[in-house]
Design goal:
By secondary structure, the chain is an alpha+beta fold. Helix content is 38%, strand content 16%.
Length: 251
């Protein structure tokens, strides 16, 4: 099958076949794993290596979540159709750099993005003293909408490891969602979560599906907007016990 053609006016991207040849050459040096050089911080490196041997491969949302947690700038080489799109993430500035149009090469292909390689960032964010490594301003974008879209529409159908398990969830005070594309139901549920913690099961009932609940929790976590409680709140416990007692009386 012929590889897709880059739209006129877009910057030249490396073909996936050429990048794979580059990875094959690295394999000869023992450095072809998706997680790149040891110049990544040891904590981030250990975090990323958890995902290397996942049956589904390394997911973009897992990588971005890890980079945000460790506040290290990295470049994530993602395959999208026949090309490789490098996404450089700047956690401290809450920005990312993409040489191609994100709406065309990322947002429309979120469920199909494949992580090929993760390396320390070479580019610098806007305003950095090393101006020679700062790209044109139009290629930098706020990272919040990308993180939201990847969680809501991407390939991942399970909670991120950091928020999984028996827990209740609330939204954090001051969470800013103005720039994000929420539907009416999501907005209503988030307002509810500001006042009342919910379990995954309860959230699934509010949203009408477990998948929708998982995706919303992942999205809120990536916005640093989730408060997680591992202790079951009394109100939730009382409700559960009352329901259990009702079932027993009618059993």
């Amino acid at each position: 099958m012929d590889e897709t053609t880059i739209p006129f006016g877009e910057p030249e991207l490396m073909r996936a076949s050429a990048f794979q040849h580059y990875l094959d050459e690295l394999a000869g040096t023992g450095a072809a794993a998706p997680v790149g050089p040891a110049s990544l911080s040891p904590s981030l490196l250990a975090d990323l290596q958890r995902f290397e041997h996942s049956p589904n491969g390394t997911e973009v949302v897992e990588v971005l979540a890890a980079c945000l947690r460790h506040a290290q700038s990295v470049v994530v080489h993602c395959q999208t159709e026949g090309y490789v799109v490098p996404i450089t993430v700047f956690p401290r500035q809450r920005l990312y750099h993409c040489p191609a149009e994100p709406e065309v090469y990322l947002m429309q292909r979120l469920a199909y993005l494949k992580v090929l390689r993760i390396e320390p960032a070479v580019l610098r964010p806007p305003g950095d003293p090393e101006s020679a490594l700062v790209a044109p301003a139009e290629h930098y974008h706020p990272i919040a909408p990308l993180l939201w879209a990847m969680a809501i529409d991407g390939a991942r159908h399970e909670l991120l490891p950091e928020i999984a398990g028996t827990a209740c969830y609330r939204t954090a005070p001051g969470l800013d969602l103005q720039a994000l594309p929420l539907n009416k139901l999501q907005r209503a549920v988030i307002r509810h979560m500001r006042l009342q913690p919910v379990s995954l099961r309860e959230l699934a009932e509010l949203l009408g599906s477990r998948d929708g609940a998982v995706r919303l929790l992942n999205a809120l976590y990536l916005q640093s907007g989730l408060i997680i409680s591992r202790a079951l709140p009394a109100s939730t416990a009382d409700s559960w016990l009352a329901t259990l007692g009702l079932r027993r009386r009618h059993g």
